[in-house]
Specification:
172 residues, mainly alpha, 0% strand, extended
């Protein structure tokens, strides 16, 4: 009787834990070392042109030595960091946007894609949440949509498409 009750409790606990939506990827910090992404180096200090015309301090405001990774990346790629928070489309990109919209655009495309992806994961990952250990379920669910790079390279070479040199084939 006691064993049957223990098995029932264990089965119910596993069933309830399998119903939780934990997402596909389990991101767990493995190790006891420091998190190097918490430390952001500041830009080097610079001397102002004139000490008499310094800007007024703004509590909680930005400092010229503070990092702004998004704006720095945009500037490094040749963009305009001042347009970072702008929602308007620059005139130079008008032709590109019009070409992309030539078959129409869906205003709620993000919600439609999110729903289609959730439905796909539900169909493919019925048993993906039942795991005894923390594993990455993303690869399990999307394994049918993963390309084999070595197989694709072989197919392109057989078709006569010039391909660059590649490292030796990986074992699967």
């Amino acid at each position: 009787m006691r064993v049957a009750r223990s098995l029932t409790v264990l089965t119910l606990a596993l069933a309830v834990s399998a119903c939780a939506d934990r997402g596909l990827q389990t991101v767990v910090k493995n190790g006891r070392g420091p998190d190097e992404f918490l430390v952001i180096p500041s830009k080097p200090l610079s001397e102002p042109e004139s000490y008499t015309f310094l800007p007024a301090p703004t509590p909680g405001g930005a400092n010229i030595t503070d990092q702004n990774p998004e704006a720095d990346a945009i500037a490094a790629l040749g963009g305009n960091p001042a347009a970072l928070n702008s929602t308007t489309i620059p005139g130079s990109d008008g032709a590109l946007v019009n070409n992309a919209r030539r078959y129409g655009s869906d205003a709620d495309i993000r919600t439609v894609l999110a729903q289609e992806d959730a439905d796909f994961r539900k169909r493919r990952g019925r048993f993906a949440n039942i795991k005894l250990f923390n594993v990455d379920r993303y690869a399990d669910v999307y394994s049918s949509q993963t390309l084999n790079a070595d197989e694709q390279e072989r197919r392109y070479r057989q078709a006569g498409v010039p391909t660059p040199a590649a490292p030796p084939a990986t074992k699967q």
